[in-house]
Amino acid sequence: QKEVEQNSGPLSVPEGAIASLNCTYSDRGSQSFFWYRQYSGKSPELIMSIYSNGDKEDGRFTAQLNKASQYVSLLIRDSQPSDSATYLCAVRDSNYQLIWGAGTKLIIKP
Amino acid sequence: DVKVTQSSRYLVKRTGEKVFLECVQDMDHENMFWYRQDPGLGLRLIYFSYDVKMKEKGDIPEGYSVSREKKERFSLILESASTNQTSMYLCASTKRRGLNTEAFFGQGTRLTVV
Predict the structure, then answer these.
(1) CA neighbours within 13 Å on the CB side: how many for B96?
(2) Which of B1, B47, B60, B102 best tests the A interface by mutation, with the highest count of A CBs <10 A?
(3) Distances in whole angstroms, Cα of residue B13 to Cα of each of B37, B57, B62
(4) Is B68 within 8 Å of B32 (Cβ atoms)?
(5) How far apart are CA A54 and CA B100, in angstroms?
(6) Which of A76, A105, B10, B20 has the most neighbouring CB atoms within 10 Å?
């Protein structure tokens, strides 16, 4: 069974600090990795995608991928209360299926 | 903008009723998916479809069926609703069967079976 693991949290971070969210996956043949944000009662929305090893930056968000260690992370710099949400990690495996983590709940404390 | 629209935001149905959840996307996406989401369990795939009239079972298909008569529309059917099917249902679509295609979600349907 292919798996994507995330710490469920909640992860509590002070406003203005860096929030670090982690995700590990089991299928070594996975090629595409996505981070979605989901506000309470709403549907997930894509915030970052990453396909090759290393870092990818987009504004306050940085996705990091390490295929050798099979983990992907999301860093949020200068965290704002509006970043409080559940963050879902999704991995497209070698069969093109999207495998989802259960999500990490992030709370930004003012 | 890609738009995935689910027919209802909230539904309350009685045990034993046949329930239809409709999903329509307007971006000519080939692939469509139905998930349910429960606290602590994340997104679980019920059924998916890569083409019109094509359907494949996901991880939890029991008690559900689907229909895809047109490319833009993917319907989820609860044949005889039960209380354990109370959940948030999410429809999603992707452009094609490729590696770098993101999923776009509808707004979700919160179904309560009483």
Answers:
(1) 3
(2) B102
(3) 18, 24, 18
(4) yes
(5) 17
(6) A76
B39 touches chain A (CB under 8 A): no
Task: Specify the 3-state DSSP secondary structure of A83.
Answer: helix
Whether residue B99 and residue A90 make contact (CB cut-off 8 A), yes or no, is no
- Please indicate if any CB of chain A lies within 8 Å of the CB of B106: yes
Judging contacts by C-beta atoms under 8 Å, the chain A residues touching residue B97 are 96
Q: pLDDT tens digit string along A42-87? A: 999 999 999 999 999 999 999 999 999 999 999 999 999 999 999 9
Coil vs helix vs strand at B109: strand
Q: Please tell me what DSSP assigns to residue A81.
A: G
Residues 6+ apart with CB under 8 A from B84: none
The two structure tokens encoding residue B52: 């019109």
- Given a contact cutoff of 8 angstroms between Cβ atoms, the answer to whether B44 and B57 are in contact is no
pLDDT at B16 over 70: yes
Q: Cβ(A3)–Cβ(A93) under 8 Å? A: no
Return the ∠ at Cα A88 (arms to A91 and A92), rounded to 5°: 10
